[in-house]
Write a structure and sequence with these properties.
Layout lengths: L1 E3 L12 E7 L12 H6 L14 H14 L3 E7 L7 H10 L6 E5 L1 H6 L3 H5 L2 H14 L5 E7 L4 H13 L4 H10 L4 H17 L5 E7 L16 E4 L2 H10 L7 H13 L3 H13 L5 H13 L7 H20 L14 H10 L6
Parallel strand pairs: 2-3, 2-5, 3-4, 5-6, 6-7
Antiparallel strand pairs: 1-4
Helix pairs in contact: 2-11, 6-7, 6-9, 10-11, 10-12, 13-14
Length: 357
C-alpha cells in the first residue's frame, strides 16, 4: 500500500510529453540504510540532513528545460519505498535543490504493519511494479518514458518488467509466472494484473526509451547484459547525461552543469570525466562521435585540461575502431527490442544469493 500526492493530469489535446520516473534512495539521495541504526534514523532526518548524489539535481533540471525547449511537457515523478513520515523532509529537500516535480509516492509501512501485512514491509518488487503500472493507468500516458534506479534492490528487474508490460512483450501468463517465481505478495499481484489488463485494453506502446541504473554498489556492468541495450548501467550522473544527450533528451547546456557538479562535489577531474565517456563507448552505450561532441561542449564551456587535444584525437581513433567492431554485433544508437529471458535472470539471481526485495 502506498501514499501518493495527486499526480499531474494527462496532456491535453495530444500535447507532446515525456515522463521521467525516479527512485529516491541511492538514485537521487545518498541514503544510508545498511545498518539498523541508519534505518531507524531516516524518519528523523531534516531536509538539511539529506544529501543528493552529485549532478543529479542538475540533470533533472536540465531534462525539464530541454523538454520545454523542444515543445514537450516534462513530467517528473518520484517513487520511494520509504515511509510517508519522511515526506516533509523529502519535499523540503527537493525545494532546496530547485526540483520541480509532478508526484511523489511513499510506501505506507505503518498501514502495512497495522493490518498485519508483514511480508509487505520488505517486499519491494510487487510494490514498485504495481505503483508504476497504476501511475501509468492514471496518466499521463506520455509516449516516451525514462526510468532511473539503482543497483541496491531490484530496479533493473522491476523497470524491465514495467517496460515489457507496456509494450506487450510480456504476456499476462508469462508475467504471472515471473511474479509467482518472485513470490510477490498476493494483493500486489492482483494490483499488477488489474493495471496490466487496463493498459493492454488501452493499447500497447513501446514507451520506455531508456532505463538508467546508478551503480552505487559498483556492481559489474556485465551483470546487466541480460536486460538488453535499453538498460544503461552508469557509474555517475555524467555518464547518464551523456547518454541522454545522445538520444536527444538532454541539451548541450546541461552537460557542463552536470560535469561541474561532479568536479565541485566529488573531486572529479576533466581526465576522469573523459574516462567516464570512454567507459560508455567501450560498453557500447555511447557512440564515439557523441563522445567527441560532449568533450567539445566541455572545452567550449571552459572545462578543459591542458594538452588534452592530442590525447583526445588518439582516443577517438581507438574508440572509433572499437565501436565499428561492436557495430557489427549490435546497433547502439537505436537499441532493438530484445526478448528478455526472465527465467534465466531469476535463476542467476537465485544462484548468486540475491533477494527479490
Amino acid at each position: 500500500m502506498s501514499r501518493a500526492e495527486p499526480e499531474a493530469p494527462a496532456p491535453a489535446g495530444g500535447e507532446p510529453a515525456v515522463t521521467f520516473r525516479w527512485d529516491l534512495d541511492k538514485t537521487y539521495l545518498r541514503t544510508e540504510f545498511e545498518t539498523f541504526r541508519q534505518l531507524v534514523r531516516i524518519p528523523f532526518e531534516s531536509a538539511a540532513d539529506k544529501v543528493h548524489l552529485p549532478g543529479v539535481p542538475q540533470l533533472i533540471r536540465a531534462l525539464r528545460r530541454s523538454a520545454l525547449a523542444r515543445g514537450e511537457r516534462p513530467y517528473v515523478f518520484f517513487l520511494s519505498a520509504s515511509p510517508p513520515q519522511i515526506g516533509t523532509a523529502i519535499r523540503q529537500k527537493l525545494d532546496l535543490d530547485g526540483i520541480e516535480y509532478d508526484g511523489i509516492t511513499f510506501k505506507d509501512q505503518l498501514r502495512n504493519l497495522m493490518r498485519g501485512r508483514f511480508k509487505s514491509l520488505t517486499e519491494q518488487i510487487g510494490y514498485k511494479l504495481a505503483e508504476l503500472l497504476e501511475a501509468r493507468v492514471r496518466g499521463p500516458a506520455a509516449p516516451r518514458e525514462v526510468l532511473f534506479g539503482d543497483d541496491w534492490e531490484s530496479d533493473p528487474l522491476i523497470y524491465s518488467l514495467y517496460a515489457d508490460v507496456l509494450s506487450g512483450a510480456l504476456s499476462p501468463a508469462r508475467l504471472a509466472d515471473v511474479l509467482a517465481a518472485l513470490a510477490v505478495e498476493r494483493l500486489a499481484m492482483a494490483r499488477i494484473e488489474r493495471a496490466a489488463e487496463a493498459l493492454s485494453e488501452a493499447g500497447h506502446v513501446d514507451a520506455v526509451a531508456r532505463i538508467y541504473i546508478n551503480l552505487e554498489r559498483r556492481t559489474p556492468p556485465g551483470r546487466f547484459h541480460a536486460f538488453g541495450a535499453r538498460l544503461v548501467p552508469a557509474f555517475n550522473s555524467f555518464q547518464t547525461g551523456a547518454s541522454l544527450y545522445e538520444i536527444g533528451l538532454l541539451d548541450a547546456e546541461g552537460i557542463p552543469d552536470i560535469a561541474g557538479a561532479l568536479i565541485d562535489q566529488s573531486g572529479y577531474t576533466v581526465e576522469r570525466l573523459r574516462n567516464s565517456l570512454d567507459d560508455l563507448v567501450r560498453r557500447g552505450h555511447l557512440r564515439p562521435d557523441t563522445r567527441g561532441r560532449v568533450v567539445g561542449i566541455l572545452e567550449r564551456s571552459g572545462v578543459r585540461a591542458a594538452g588534452a587535444r592530442k590525447r583526445l584525437r588518439e582516443r577517438l581513433r581507438a574508440a572509433l575502431a572499437e565501436w565499428r567492431e561492436r557495430r557489427r554485433r549490435a546497433a547502439v544508437d537505436a537499441p532493438a527490442p530484445v526478448a528478455i529471458d526472465y527465467e534465466h535472470i531469476l535463476q542467476d539471481w537465485s544462484r548468486r544469493g540475491l533477494r527479490g526485495a
